[in-house]
Amino acid sequence: MPDPETEEMRLDQIQRAREERGREETTEERAASHAAERRADKAEYLRDKLAERGRSEDEAAQQD
Questions:
Q1: Residue 51: its pLDDT value, please?
Q2: Using one digit for the tens of pLDDT, what is the confidence trace for 14-37?
């Protein structure tokens, strides 16, 4: 199981991605929509990296 802090950060990124996608859909201004899309992409990227980190932590724990 990944470190609880890593798991919490990963869940935060999932929530952020959802929120930013929602903002992207409700934003009328094109520039703001583009910024929301970039923030959502970043949150998804970080979520993926945190999931990768969690898997690495699991593997390291199993090797110990």
A1: 93
A2: 999 888 887 766 656 777 778 888
What tokens were used for 37?
A: 């899309």
What are the Cα distances from residue 59, in Å, to 1, 4, 32, 44, 47?
9, 15, 41, 23, 18
CA–CA gap between residue 38 and residue 8 (Å, rounded): 22
- Measuring CA to CA, which residue among 59, 42, 31, 12 is closest to residue 4? 12
Task: Compute the residue count for the chain.
Answer: 64
Residues 34, 40, 44, 45, CA torsion sign: positive
Distance CA 6, CA 56 (A): 11
